[in-house]
Amino acid sequence: MNFLESVLTFIFPPTCGICGKETENYICKACAKKIQENYMPQIITYGNIKHCYIFQYEGIIREKILQYKFKDKAYLYKMFSEFFIKNEKVCRFLKNYDIIIPVPMTKKKIAKRGYNQTELIAKEIAKNTENLEYLNNILIKQKETNIQSTLGKKERFNNVKNAYKIQNMQKIKEKNIILFDDIYTTGATCMECQKIIMQAGAKSVALLTLAKDFEK
Ligand SMILES: [Zn+2]
Predict the structure, then answer these.
(1) Residues spanned by the domain of 156
(2) Ligand 1 centre from 7 Cα, in Å?
(3) What's the CATH code of the domain at 161?
(4) For the chain, what is the mean pLDDT?
């Protein structure tokens, strides 16, 4: 912990992301127990693409992710990051990669929301792993899209088509990349981003998400 962090911890002691009580680890023991059955880091594959996620998108976790995204609860990134960096299986998985890239939002959207929820978590994960470099100047969102959750499966794929572009291509040449997003539903966003990162010359791209939604 650096000086600024210790001062901040003194002024704003960490609180449990679920119940709001003061606690050391951003989630209190009682709440950790409550979400235990949903906390199941998994690594699955689609063809040759690996996907690591830690929750099923349901119950209290779903509620918290929605608050994190849409209700100005930026501070929840700390709790969500802990779920990744404190898990051995996830850490072992992350060791195979060089760079972590968050799924971006447009500048306009970030200005409106005040933060990009995927950036906060991806940055925190990189800070706590030795091998991962955090880069948010590679994958750029170039056009505004409709909110994916308001669309059907086919529309989601059309919605994200050509919505992203790559900059600073040389930085990802022959690198193993982790693409970070909050929720994986149909995979439309992740797969579109994965595709253009690969086209730009990356060696591999794996997906890392907080949750996977099994309903769609
Ligand atoms: Zn709690």
Answers:
(1) 38-212
(2) 23
(3) 3.40.50
(4) 91
Residue with tokens 């960096």: 85
Q: Residue 211 has what pLDDT?
A: 96
Q: Which of 8-12, 29-33, 71-75 has the lowest mean pLDDT?
A: 8-12
Ligand 1 geometric centre to CA of 60 (Å) = 12
Cα(36) to centroid(ligand 1), Å: 12
Residue 18 lies in a domain: no
Give yes or no for residue 60 having a pLDDT over 80. Answer: yes
Task: Tell which wins on pLDDT, 138 or 72.
Answer: 138
Distance (angstroms) between ligand 1 centre and the Cα of 20 equals 6
Q: Give pTM, 2 decimals.
A: 0.91
CA of 32 to the centre of ligand 1 (A): 7
User: 123 C-alpha to center of ligand 1: Å?
Assistant: 24
Q: Kindly state whether residue 145 falls inside one of the protein's structural domains.
A: yes
Ligand 1 centroid to 58 CA: how many Å?
A: 18
Ligand 1 center to residue 185 CA distance, Å? 27
Angle at 145 between CA 141 and CA 148, to 5 degrees: 110
Helix (H, G, I), strand (E, B) or coil at 156: helix
Going from the C-alpha of 164 to that of each of 18, 106, 123, the distances in angstroms are 33, 9, 20
- Residue 3 included in any domain: no
Q: How far is the CA of 11 from the centre of ligand 1 (A)?
A: 19
Does some domain include residue 29? no
Number of structural domains (the chain) is 1
Q: Is the dihedral of CA 179, 138, 195, 201 positive or negative?
A: negative
Mean pLDDT on 172-182? 97
